[in-house]
Amino acid sequence: VSDKTLNFFKLYQVEKNHNITLDLTFTTKPECSQTFWLVLCYRMEDKKVLYQYVDVGSNKVSESQDEQFSGRVLFDQDLLRKGRIRLHVYSLKMEDSGFYVCKLTIGLIYKRKYTIKINLL
Fold this sequence. Notes:
Helix content: under 10%
Structural class: mainly beta
Order of helices and strands: EEEEEEHEEE
Strand order of the largest sheet: 1-9-8-3-4-5
Number of strands: 9
CATH architecture: Sandwich
CATH topology: Immunoglobulin-like
Distance between the termini: 41 Å
Radius of gyration: 14 Å
Strand content: over 45%
CATH superfamily: Immunoglobulins
Number of helices: 1
Shape: globular
C-alpha cells in the first residue's frame, strides 16, 4: 500500500438538458482500513461541490453539494464498497461545463484522484 495518489482522466460529451452518468472504478487492498470513506467531486474553476460523501465506520454518513447541483445528482452508495463511484447528473446546464476533480479516500492511505472534463454540446 502506498500513500501516493493515483490520477486518472475521463472526458464526457453531452448535450444541454441531457443526463450523464459519471462512472469511476477503483480497486481496494485488504490492508487498507475501510472505516473511513470520502468521495469529493468539485468543479475546478470555482470549487463548487458537485457531490460530497463521508462515511465513518458505517455509522455516520453525511452528504452535501453546492446549490447549483441540488436535486440533480444521485450517488449510488451501494456500489462504493464494490469498487465503483457512480454519480448520475440530471438536466445538465451550460454552466455545468468544465473540469471536475473527484477524490476518493479510504482510510488514511488509499487515495485516488480523477479529473473529469464535461463538454456540453
